[in-house]
Write a structure and sequence with these properties.
The protein is an alpha/beta fold. It has two domains: 7-301, Carbamate kinase (3-Layer(aba) Sandwich); 309-401, PUA domain (Archaeosine Trna-guanine Transglycosylase, Chain: A, domain 4). It contains twelve helices and 14 strands. The protein has helices at residues 35-38, 61-74, 89-94, 106-129, 142-146, 148-163, 187-196, 250-263, 276-280, 298-305, 317-324, 378-385; strands at 7-9, 42-47, 81-86, 135-140, 167-172, 201-206, 223-227, 268-272, 287-289, 311-315, 335-340, 347-351, 357-362, 399-401. The strands form two sheets. It has a nine-stranded mixed beta sheet with strand order 1-7-9-8-6-2-3-5-4, sandwiched between helices. A five-stranded mixed beta sheet has the order 11-10-12-13-14. α2 (61-74) links the parallel β2 (42-47) and β3 (81-86). It starts with 6 loop residues before the first strand and ends with a strand. Residues 48-51, 206-208, 211-212, 215-216, 236-239, 242-244, 247-251 line the site of adenosine-5'-diphosphate.
Amino acid sequence: MATEMATVQQDMNRQDATAPTATPPTATAPSVTRPFVTEARRIVVKVGSSSLTTAAGGLDADRVDALVDVLAKVRSGGEKEIVLVSSGAIAAGLAPLGLTRRPKDLARQQAAASVGQGLLVARYTASFARYGVRVGQVLLTTDDTSRRAHYRNAYRTLDQLLAMGALPVVNENDTVATDEIRFGDNDRLAALVAHLVRADLLVLLSDVDGLYDGDPAKPGTSRIAEVGGPRDIAHVEIGSAGKAGVGTGGMVTKVEAARIAAAAGIPVVLTSASRAADALAGRDTGTYFQRTGRRSADRLLWLAHASTPQGSLGLDEGAVRAVVEGKKSLLAAGIAAVEGDFVAGDPVELRDSAGRPVARGLVNFDAKELPRMLGRSTPELARELGPEYEREVVHRDDLVVLG
Ligand SMILES: Nc1ncnc2c1ncn2[C@@H]1O[C@H](COP(=O)(O)OP(=O)(O)O)[C@@H](O)[C@H]1O
Ligand SMILES: N[C@@H](CCC(=O)OP(=O)(O)O)C(=O)O
């Protein structure tokens, strides 16, 4: 982890007005100082609901167009690929359904998302068409991010869209996600998509021009220009709700997303949508989160951050050592307890004898099959129950140790 101190800068234009246009590059535009941005070939850009909607609610076509202008220009040279993770489905669906504010219940949020997602993608399609760019809609759930077959499929589709010169517009599949398995915000989804497509850069666009060292609405708070690692911002007061009332998660989920991406070797720039052009030109704007780690094995990041465990396995001490220190597969012999109603292929939590989660993995058996297997060796199981029981309960390739 990097230990440099965060750099703090005073900034007068912290909050985006609802002005539709991107900030024009003027004489005061900051100089190009970020080669990791100018050199990035594959970029994931995430834009929040608060940057796409009008003050009165509903989709703001001018703001969508302003963002599209910036993104189309970035990729116009043919050297850069962009994946856009766009929120805004729920916000866009409110007014057409006669709703004045974001409903609290999931069913009405899903209805709004169902109406709004169509409008959102229609708007992007029309707007990118001005530049002759095709968009492809990709809707993902947490399952698509943790199950091997879904994960590969999601990667293949996104990669193929990019190879064919299209621009993927990703959102969470809100209409089928339940409360338990929902990302809710798109910030972490964007970090995981960045990892999935092996992006060189993640740009998070919000209605605020960076991370502040306190509530940006209050005087005396300053923008943090650079974050070397989580310790740099351990003291920062990070709010969970945006002022516009249409976004979710606030700054908390953005910082978490930046942490996930940075730990996976992807640098992150967090700024406002109106500064997207500056940010993507490598100018010194917003908050830059340095990478803190290297790329990890593909799917495991998704397993750690995106999956919702459907149950847990209690491990004895030897099994905890084997899994955590030895990076070995989990065998039935080391399991003392089973909780939950999972089926083979589900993500489960692996806990130590004190109940602390130590790892997460995809289980190879249904919950109801496991009790009679506990504490027994693999050859014994094969002999007594049949050769299909001669398997690890969680294979080490499907297992991630929690840090
Ligand atoms: N320390 C902080 N620095 C910057 N913004 C903050 C901070 N704490 C809370 N916020 C709030 O987070 C909001 C952005 O979150 P959100 O509304 O969810 O945006 P989006 O829709 O873009 O995802 C900002 O408008 C700001 O008011
Ligand atoms: N998938 C949801 C995202 C929810 C949301 O508000 O996210 P964000 O604005 O990124 O905090 C939507 O499209 O409305």
